């Protein structure tokens, strides 16, 4: 890994650190090995003092052999030589007792005020929430465009303060979907609509914003809006050059169902189901879709798939049968019987469907109704 350039050694630092690590024996090692490793690391430090991994490996060697104070001294010396190395400061904070660790991190911030990891460590070292908040506020003054810091800061706040923080966060990081959606969740219905519209202007290529908007309308009783939103989502995303991935949308529909937004999930399925499916593959693909949904416990999604398939192929007996078996397995008796009533209206020549309807009534001890169904069948 080493090539000589005018007498200097060029070392691949990544492979080098792992080599150094493998030279550090653990406790049970032979005392001579430890001495050897010590000498080796010492010569590495002396020839290349501005190489952080050498300092870290040296400190860890002392730590492993139980000389914690020596490890601390070494790592602090390393920090002195390389004040801009994030890894060294974090290692120093790890080796020091809590109070000293705070001082070490405070010192490191003066050298690398834009290191997100250092600020997060600083907040971790604080025990009180109030102090943690203070650290994050300060961190955000230095690095206002770090989504990770905003998220951490928001997590510590009460809803009202979180709202204020998030509205500032989306100004600083207008392309972070998570921040926009978090803000929309905390807002009232009217404000959430405004937030989502703004989010859409900033990130025209993300489907989650559209789906959240649809869920929002459903939650506020505006079911008629949901279908419009989902249709507009697909046309708008396509216009912005986003590939419409059927699988991703199906996953979203299942997530939406889990979140309790049944109407939105049905609208997503309706909008996406025919997407990119060849005319002759439609029936076969849709039946597979329904099975996948059912297997993953997304029953409303599966129902929506069957409903759409039946709307396209109303006289296909096989689809009615699959839908009927689905209701028989997962639905209620009522849902099965309503489906079968529609089925026999469309496929009056199918014996199985009539018999399933009669049997369902008969199993519910409603013999006259079962007879009624069969006599209708003979007509």
Automatic annotation (TrEMBL):
Gene3D superfamilies: Tetratricopeptide repeat domain (1.25.40.10)
Database matches in InterPro entries: HAT, Suf, Syf1-like, TPR-like_helical_dom_sf
GO CC field: catalytic step 2 spliceosome; U4/U6 x U5 tri-snRNP complex
Keywords assigned by UniProt, alphabetized: Nucleus, Repeat
Segments forming domain Suppressor of forked: 87-235
Keyword presence, Nucleus: yes
Location of the protein in the cell: Nucleus
Domain of life the protein comes from: Eukaryota
Entry annotated with the keyword S-adenosyl-L-methionine: no
GO biological process: spliceosomal tri-snRNP complex assembly
PANTHER family (UniProt xref): PRE-MRNA SPLICING FACTOR, PRE-MRNA-PROCESSING FACTOR 6
Name under which the protein is recorded: Suppressor of forked domain-containing protein
